[in-house]
Structures
1.
Amino acid sequence: MATRKTKTKTKAKTTARRRTAAKTPVRNAFYAQSGGVTAVINASACGVIETARKHKNKIGKVYAGRNGIIGALTEDLIDTSKESVAAIKALRHTPSGAFGSCRYKLKSLEKNRREYERLIEVFEAHNIGYFFYNGGGDSADTCHKISQLSETMGYPLQAIHVPKTVDNDLPITDNCPGFGSVAKYIAVSTREASFDVASMAKTSTKVFIIEVMGRHAGWIAAAGGLASSEDTPIPIVILFPEVEFDQKAFIKKVDGMVKKHGYCTVVVSEGVHWPNGKFLAESGLTDAFGHAQLGGAAPVVANMVQQELGLKYHWAVADYLQRAARHIASKTDVNMAYAMGKAAVEFALKGHNAIMPTVDRISDKPFKWKVGMADLSKVANVEKMMPKNFITKDGFGITQKCRTYLEPLIRGEDYPPYKNGMPQYVRLKNVAVKKKTKKAFKL
Amino acid sequence: MATRKTKTKTKAKTTARRRTAAKTPVRNAFYAQSGGVTAVINASACGVIETARKHKNKIGKVYAGRNGIIGALTEDLIDTSKESVAAIKALRHTPSGAFGSCRYKLKSLEKNRREYERLIEVFEAHNIGYFFYNGGGDSADTCHKISQLSETMGYPLQAIHVPKTVDNDLPITDNCPGFGSVAKYIAVSTREASFDVASMAKTSTKVFIIEVMGRHAGWIAAAGGLASSEDTPIPIVILFPEVEFDQKAFIKKVDGMVKKHGYCTVVVSEGVHWPNGKFLAESGLTDAFGHAQLGGAAPVVANMVQQELGLKYHWAVADYLQRAARHIASKTDVNMAYAMGKAAVEFALKGHNAIMPTVDRISDKPFKWKVGMADLSKVANVEKMMPKNFITKDGFGITQKCRTYLEPLIRGEDYPPYKNGMPQYVRLKNVAVKKKTKKAFKL
């Protein structure tokens, strides 16, 4: 299964590198997971590894960075060739980051040349010619910087970014793998909890508040709107980070909904903020010792509802549950996540560098999409917000345009296998690759 | 489908009643949902209605109380015979209370005779001879009082309680329908979120805290312990309402877990309290205006972890999401919920009164159970707490005995049907029965 690695003992580095590249077409790949993990980032890993294993004439081994790019910097590599076919296949239905992720952003080459030199040292030691980086906006930026190493530092490397983020804020691609599954979780959970509060409203809870992720973009909050549909209408008020919070208008909206329907559900994004930019979640809560309480937005909104309208409420904060909920992942999302990983390898084999595979939507009805490609220079540091025409005029709901966009992304169920009532998620062996560089690197 | 109703125009009430009972063996049934709803209470409703429909020679129509017992008091009855076979069948996979529930406890006959007289007035007007009450401890008490009406007020009625409560605190029955599904949701969600935090722990979140329901009994918190199993060990700290909170011991436990495993997950029951009985959730939080903040226990625990250990945390409050999560219901639980509804009708047809069908466990391995029966006098006002030997000595975990009890209850998946990515939950027509009593009743 393993391919012999080429050792390059060099005199003149550049010559040696060229020679290596010329003599051995087989090079190893590096894969890393970056930033917040999702229910389907491992499906992308599965796509990368399974596809690479099919091209052993070009890609030797896939080494994964333990805890993302930190694994590359500290030469803490995981040999994925030690994992069975079944284990790699099981990644497709396992949430979280199987190799560990990290929040670590490389500075620019000018500001921290040391880190790039170290990456090259490690890559060279392990004959790494392919760099697959699975992450969001910051990671796209890092990947873009690394993609320039061939040119700027003379090390032959193809860097491809694999899109991932529950926030759905990467440009060019129709959506980001990870988002569809969170959207499904939030839509389903909001529908279920709304049924609950509707049952209780006569004598008890009348307002249910669910807080969802999305500090800057309201994509996930928008998905809460899918809980209501033509055949199952539900009174829902959405608080988007894109819309400055207007307490008076919000209270009026909730009051009207409860008066008309007997109850209502509020979907509040963690990123909702006052006109002065301050998050609702930081509304000056202090505990008994006077310490600032890092609360959620949901309890703050709940308090308002109680104080202004005197209505009984319940609130939930989904937090990690939403992005880890592989048990209710969107099949469309899982398929896209896998396809992005697969495409990344195929693009690499075709010689591409500094790109990111994308989801290109062909049509809404029927929903059709294909794999596309974006230049990383156009992806890095661009944040895709909700278009204005996706939010209703009053700022509290989603438009039909938004529904048309969102609906296909939550379609299909893709249940993991269960044993004794529990989902069977894989834990890899994560065998370390023997270190080859002389000295340790301090982060 | 409908059976002709007998009209009883009476002179001397008691005689008329006897005559009615003698002349017409066919009487109608009243069914109501009470207290907090669950993912499977409608499965019990389905069991009641489907079984009653099979015995039209004895049970005419099933009238449901709109919003529980309030529907009986205000003569707001729903004619379930107007619902199609498919709609009733769909109740089995629909969470929440399809007829509306309520939090309303009848006082004793001595203290509020007026309510009981009103119930008899309504029941008599609609020829109701069977009373099925679907709820928890308080409802069992109400049902028990109503079961005495035959004797105390001369109205022939059979009252049967159908067990339901996510809190799992009813006595005699092995478990309460509703609990198994919450347990599964919490076990699955805790496992998923733990995988997430394990991926992030190197550079980011090291402690994840999930708050679960259970104000007095720690059954749901205990289910969090199932997230960890022999093949998938996870460092979990559980905070039970049965164990007085010891901040020092808790912080030491978390510290040890994080030092050993790199991360840990805390499952905290909403009912966790200080030795003086004060809930953690009421730890004196105030908002910017000095108003008491009705926060959750999770943010309080999170603050402790941050202040005492300086560890990065995330927290979630599952709230209604856990008890409404029909999408991940336990098949065992759904089957039991249905069986309890079915058995209630069958027991009634055999002439029983003042009883509750129960789940009787025959064996753990293999898991076998049968329908049993409990006297309501022994159910009402008894709360089943976690046995001491279900909690580990240090107070932060579950024992093997507890696992053996819990594991069978979360077994099996019972997915609802989906359309365009969303679960298809039924909403009944809930057609009102024409009122027959003269005057309105004020609650």
2.
Amino acid sequence: MKALVLNEVRQLLVLQERPSPKAGKRQVIVKLKAAALNRRDYWITQGLYPGIRCPVVLGSDGAGTADFREKEVIINPGYNWGHRQEVQSGDFKILGMPDDGTFAEEIVVPQEQLFARPKHLSFEQAAALPLAGLTAYRALFKQGRLQSSQTVVITGIGGGVACIAIQLAIAAGATVIVTSSSQAKINKAMAMGATAGFLYTAEGYASQVNAEFGPIHLIVDGAGGDGYSQLIDMACPGGTIVNYGATAGIAEKLELRKVFFRQLHLVGSTMGSPADFSAMLDMVGKHEIQPVVDEVFALSDGNKALEKMKVSSQFGKIVLRVSDR
Amino acid sequence: MKALVLNEVRQLLVLQERPSPKAGKRQVIVKLKAAALNRRDYWITQGLYPGIRCPVVLGSDGAGTADFREKEVIINPGYNWGHRQEVQSGDFKILGMPDDGTFAEEIVVPQEQLFARPKHLSFEQAAALPLAGLTAYRALFKQGRLQSSQTVVITGIGGGVACIAIQLAIAAGATVIVTSSSQAKINKAMAMGATAGFLYTAEGYASQVNAEFGPIHLIVDGAGGDGYSQLIDMACPGGTIVNYGATAGIAEKLELRKVFFRQLHLVGSTMGSPADFSAMLDMVGKHEIQPVVDEVFALSDGNKALEKMKVSSQFGKIVLRVSDR
């Protein structure tokens, strides 16, 4: 079978022939139709991830067919979450490094990681869902406890998690405000149902958010960095900021006086539990949410797809078509 | 009646004669037996508090007699909390600036702020309880959701909130670990039932806490500052750090990667609601907790008491004896 292999960090991926995987006990072979990229894949190619082992097939997201359940499946990429809903166990891992991932024609996965493909989604849309949908669901509803009457600010629209977060939050009945450095991305988010969008590059944008929408109940952020202090200013008393990433790095200067006097909750979130995955699928099915696919590349064009992820020009998920059969 | 008056910031308090307060509708006059200091009083004398108005009588904590309820009362110093349990309203204020406080022979307070003095406490012990007990209770149980099976680290032992927090946490069945820059204070905390104490001035103390006690469920901190990042390292996956103060200032760097990957909860807490105050009193009564009184000064020695607060040499609350009658 063919697979996109990372033979060494900071090298291009190579499409090469590999032996088909074999299913062990309680494992299933999935013939992949589509896969999707996550920023994690890019970090690994750059050597910026702990414990990298090569050669390896990257890819956490995939949809395809299997001789199991309803035959058409998507994969929950979070393995060994453990028994505590509030946090993953020490054995938790994400599919695609160290285990071979979804940028391949075939993959072997434990049975319990397989879920039926949502019927309203194509394989490409389905492949766009798992890791981003899981991360967004947990950040919004488990860690952020979003209520339908509330207003949520979702930062850095364009990334896969932020895009599906807009859709899930709207489905939950919340008012959604987005931020981006790109007016074009803001316009796309508003076309999806966001109520307003703000350029975070504009001076004093946080006060403008508050002037127009009042203090904010929940902020879901994947960036951190210098902009984090403005999120603290934007949050309402008793409000919550959930971080699922820190692409802009460390937050300098945390003004704890604001945090304690306004009784804020600064909460970390990463991926999600099997219960989160299942709840996310239910919501996506019930509301017929379609993940935004930015562009579909052939598996053989995996390096072009990674290049797009590198410059963050996408809006939604970058998908790889693995097989049309 | 006599009162300790702050006529101007950065001046000494002056014991002077003032007209007795008059009770309006649904208000009660309390003849104070004892009052207690909080760091807030010191900040105000130094001009380091928003909205200072002089002349004013400071003091948030007091116990005395009133022609109301069970005659012997303590005062809940948090006014106008509002209807949301999760955070105070915009009208919230603490007794003692702008309203005249407890460093006086008499004070007028709204009826609903009065609670029966816990029967096992002297007036001086009772005066030591309100603001510190309220703050510690909310930080531990509402914001920190401490469970009896858990381990809690309480930082900066010696302060009034930290001292009563030790007692409340032990009463709840938790394992208590303390930190201080003073071995003498650590020894006192262990005599009160803390399981262990660590000098936060010692290199690598956080790893030592983890080596001996494993990762920590809950950390209750009133300092912030440079030491904050070590609290993040100390917390267990899914753990919580509650801040009720930032005497050491801004936390310079917040490593969001650690926060999101370990799904930490960084939670602010300030004072508490009337429900918190009532629950705190129940717990103090049920377990016959006696707040630690560091030293009792005469009302006329209020400036000496403030001086002790300034250098933080106390262990427990600094109390003013207002009247023996």
